[in-house]
Design goal:
Strand content: 15-25%
CATH topology of the largest domain: Quinone Oxidoreductase, Chain A, domain 1
CATH class of the largest domain: Alpha Beta
Largest sheet: 7 strands, mixed
CATH superfamily of the largest domain: Medium-chain alcohol dehydrogenases, catalytic domain
Shape: globular
CATH architecture of the largest domain: Alpha-Beta Complex
Distance between the termini: 10 Å
């Protein structure tokens, strides 16, 4: 089969297309014929060799996928060959999604609702799981509160907007392009603000009734965290989903509001937490209140181009690879 392989850590050029043996499902595992593979920033970080997760070389990147069940390992029930599925949950390190076939534990393979395309299915795993966990497990957001989604046009942001709106929250979201702003309005953000404008923080405060957001989902904490602390409502919660550097920060901003700041990363989740996230995401997909947004579909061989794009900013949904 064809797969993207990384034989040395480095830039996007280390992503090369190769022929590799087909993976075989073991007990409790499912083999999926991949129709689309999601591309996530974390996969670009891992590829550099400087991230906390450093797989042994060579390896096939990729966490998210959608396709059809191709083969079942011993003991697998509840799935049949030919089922439309997507993957979400801790991945089996022996098989990545940038490939024509992948093997994963059965608990991480879920039915793909009929209205969703394979590309949309490949946009569920990391992005929708992150958004659901940030809003409901970490921030404990409830109906009637106001949430600020910084970077609302990205894959996590688009999911967070839809989930928050469906849960009865007032949604303020930001984007940096006209396309991104149009997208977050379409997804249901009550207030869509351009974070490239010098007065956008004042606009956030005004949109939150002068009190500030109760919850902030933060995609770029090294740039925004200090400002978030100033904007936040008393006893508000900030969930750090992403950061690309350090910052000089005054903790008194948090003390004055008795605010809470928490970080999150999916690899830290327990099995019970994954069950809760998967149940919440699956319910939203089935109800139609969550529809993953796909930006671009690229051929598998263009994985280097996809990694450049996912790190370039100005996203408007998910980038997926098509084997």
């Amino acid at each position: 089969m064809r797969a993207i392989r990384v034989t040395a850590f480095g830039g996007p050029d280390v992503l090369t297309l190769a022929d590799v043996p087909e993976p075989q499902p073991g007990p409790g595992q499912i083999r999926v014929r991949v129709h689309a593979a999601g591309v996530n920033p974390v996969e670009a970080y891992i590829r550099t060799g400087t991230y906390a997760i450093k797989p042994p070389l060579p390896y096939t990147p990729g966490i998210d996928a959608a396709g059809v069940v191709d083969a079942l390992g011993d003991g697998v029930t509840g799935h049949a060959v030919g089922d439309r599925v997507y993957t979400a949950g801790p991945m089996n390190a022996s098989s990545g999604s940038y490939a024509e076939l992948l093997v994963n534990d059965a608990r991480n393979v879920h039915a793909l609702p009929a209205p969703l395309s394979f590309a949309q299915g490949a946009a569920v795993g990391v992005a929708c799981s992150t958004a659901w966990r940030a809003l409901f497990q970490k921030a404990a957001a409830v109906a009637g509160e106001t949430v600020l989604v910084h970077g609302g046009s990205g894959s996590v942001g688009t999911a967070a907007i839809q989930l928050a709106r469906a849960a009865g929250l007032t949604v303020i979201a930001t984007a940096g392009t006209a396309k991104g702003l149009a997208l977050i309005r379409e997804l249901g953000a009550h207030h869509a603000l351009d974070h490239g404008q010098p007065d956008y923080r004042a606009a956030i405060k005004a949109a939150a009734g002068g009190r500030g957001p109760d919850v902030i989902v933060e995609m770029l904490a090294n740039v925004n965290l200090a400002h978030d602390a100033e904007l936040l409502a008393p006893r508000g919660r900030i969930v750090v989903v992403g950061s690309r550097g350090s910052l000089d920060f005054a903790p008194r901003l948090l003390m004055a509001k008795e605010a809470t700041v928490c970080g999150m990363t999916l690899p830290n989740m327990t099995a019970d937490e994954w069950r809760g996230v998967n149940a919440g995401v699956q319910a939203a997909l089935a109800a139609g209140t969550l529809k993953p947004v796909v930006n671009r579909e690229l051929p598998l061989a263009d994985a280097p181009k996809a990694h450049e794009a996912v790190m370039s900013g100005g996203a408007a949904g998910k980038i997926v690879l098509v084997p």
